[in-house]
Amino acid sequence: MSAIILDGRATAGAIKTELTQEVVALKKRGITPGLGTLLVGDDPGSHSYVAGKHRDCEQVGVHSVRIDLPANAKEADVRSAIRDLNTAKDVTGYIVQLPLPFGFDTNEILELIDPDKDADGLHPINLGRLVLAGSGELTSPLPCTPAGIVELLERYQVQLRGAEVAIIGRGITVGRPLGLLLNKKGIDSTVTLLHSGSKDIGHAVKRADIVIAALGVPHFVKAEWIKPGAAVLDVGITRVDNAEGSSLIGDVDPAVVEIAGHLSPNPGGVGPMTRAMLVKNVITAAGRN
Asked: Which residues are catalytic?
């Protein structure tokens, strides 16, 4: 029996339809949501991803502003662009596209963002609010990929309350904030965060009802690790050169589809959800202001 596919493209499309209606309602109140992006350098993946974010905005009626700087941009140029986005009246939320070129202190740059305009939810203040969140509603933006993962699971009615979740990878954009979000009161999953120092990862994964792989190692998660019927989300991605040029490879062995109950494809699973959550953060910020 093959797994039910967690279709991120279709789900993100449904979310964008809902967001379009929210934008219409905000504009009737005289509020126009606006996304800003700051891209430094010439990384092809980053350029493609930023272009996709602006297409998403166009589809739902969100205004967008794009600032691109060359790879040899000075730190003063980046700081100036961030100041402009912090004060721009037509930008209700923005992102600094990562990774930044070599030589930049990513944490230092992210701290310059106005927390109320932090569309990625990665500012230290907003991550701190996630840490402190009890059972109440968060009023700060959530990190987009973790929020997209939870939304995708909920829309496919995958049980989260009481579920044992194995997250492989402890990065700041996915693993660590996702663990915080999943064991927040109201979601109530039990989370094991696995990483390069963990012993016998396969054994830990085998216990899990939900497995989320976010480490960027091709086909790291093996079919024999998966408990029959578990939900598996393939988040990490690696570009691999081959005779045809290059291809994108996820963290999960394709054979997992025959064991899992639910499986997100990669690409086409969590990636579209991340972009949808970014647009949602921008619209939500506009409604708060």
From this structure: 53, 97, 120
